[in-house]
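Can anyone check this?
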Amino acid sequence: MDEDFNKSLSDSMETHPDFLPYLPELLVDLWDLGSAPDKIVDILRPVNLPPNSTRVLDLGCGKGAVSVLLAKTFGFQVVGIDGCEPFLEVARQKAHEYEVESKCEFILTDLRSYVQKACNFDIVILASLGSVLGNLAETVAKLRIALRPGGYMVIDDGFLKTENKLNRTGYAYYLSHTESIRQLISQGDSLIGEILLDDEHNRAINQRYLQAMKSRRNDLLKKYPHIRKEVDEYIRNQEIECEIIEKNLKGVVWLVQKK
């Protein structure tokens, strides 16, 4: 993987490229990595796509929580893309555990380049990856390249609770609900589904996320005592991120149909 890719991956994981190799061990107890797999299942259920023949592209699939759940629930054929091989190893193990390994393929590559050459998928998913593909309008423009006409984009993200924009790095692209919807359909597509995530539920998820990291901190430092500063800085930064999200953002899963 090249330097630009590592920078993009570290930005999406909110850390420095040098810390990336240690993240899998710090996040070992977390399968969904901040996405909402159950809500993605819920928003796709009414679409009633056929099993076996429906092709799904899960961009930034992480440890495969969304991919595996879609394959298990609906029988879809899923291709998961991620830049972290340890995460993909877990995804393959989970696919085997859930008896859907024949329906799941996990590929180590840069999602930004892969989405530009993919085509004729029925569903493309981008879950909890922020602005890795740009703002919402730019993201939709790129996602729809990989879709057949009439295909579906699932975006698990959020919008501002107020009109006040966030100046923090990585958060400037968040918009009001009205402006977010405007960007989502800027290509002429149709917004056909929206699930708002409960604030209390999100807070509980964030606390579980933080507690899981903190519980693994000491084990990680026993193996790599020289990264104490980096580990503590990462955990503290995640605490700040959770506070910002809970105060300023409303979690949402959108379903957009390509025209």
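Reply from J.R.: I decoded it. The beta strands are 55-59, 77-82, 104-108, 121-127, 147-160, 190-196, 249-257.
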